[in-house]
Amino acid sequence: MLRARKRRVQRTSLAIAAMLAAAACSQTSGATQAQTQPATPLPAASAPATSAAENGAQNVYAEAGVNMLSPAVRGQRSLVYVPNHGAGTVSVINPQTYRVIDTFRTGADPQHVVPSYDMKTLWVNNNEGGNSLTPIDPNTGKRRGPNVRVADPYNMYFTPDGRAAIVVAEAEQRLDFRDPQTMALQSSTQVDCRGINHADFSADLTYAVFTCEFSGKVVRVDMGTRKVTGYLTLLGGAFAMPQDIRLSPRGDVFYVADMMSGGVHIVDARGRVMREVGLLKTGQEAHGIYPSRDGRYLYVSNRGAPDRKGSVAVVDPDAGRVVAIWPIPGGGTPDMGGVTADGRELWLSGRRDNVVYVWDTRTGRLTHVIPVGLEPHGLAVWPQPGRFSLGHTGNTR
Asked: Which pTM value belongs to this model?
């Protein structure tokens, strides 16, 4: 079973090495205080979102503003859950003390911690060697029962009506629509692109766009029919490696992080035919994308390539430009994570350094580096504001 995980790691590493060549022709316990560094502060970056957009513009994240917590999460513990891909465990961090308070086993190869549509369960996605989902009770921060057998769950999303979980079976090039409670299979949609893994939804929630990491493409899927309605080859073609994707607060474009292009592709979200309208450079190995609580900014994690010069790029999605870069003193490899409910902190896993990073979003300073397990990946900061979860590490609306 471990051979499957090794094949994917080797495939990804070889692909990155080949593309970089073509483009160029001791873990410890406890939390450590991070070194601070000059950074561009963003005044009012964590101000409450409004139900209507600023200056009359739409804000698709208006219902997920500062501390706008649903009654569904009342009583749930404020914790950060870190899946350690190489260790087969989840580390649980107390965000008040910045220390690991628990570690428990999942299945092999945990990738992401995904909140359920109703926000009452957190699902650990154990793909390749694991082929299972580990349920977590957010009221206790502990496992809830045995693993549920599911084929190749690299990532997971939910249909906007809440009637199905969408298990992203990356190695199978397939989306499996399952009962959101029992995970019984309802239907499957095969896609013609390799490495399907991340997604986001249109402003009206009628369709989703998934990225295909090993094909340099994105694919659009209708949520009513559950059928593919289009593909788009991104700038760079076979040399592109799309990762996370997020809709702009205005709902007019998707931003697609690309590890090989060093930035985010900008894809029209309103036309009948998908088309790329720009490429914004953010930093080496752009990987994750997270909106600020007021919808004014998108935080893009740049994993930093082999030299570990990782950073966070702060993007103004309305202007389509980078307004600040938040570096990691001494280098690092920020990957996946989320913003706290109050909007004041950004938490990201350090995939190649076996740590978790914490940034102050008001100052742009790295405040904590917390050692965790081997290869931390899609961590979830929980609970999150919003009416329902669309999946991933906390995409809420």
From this structure: 0.89
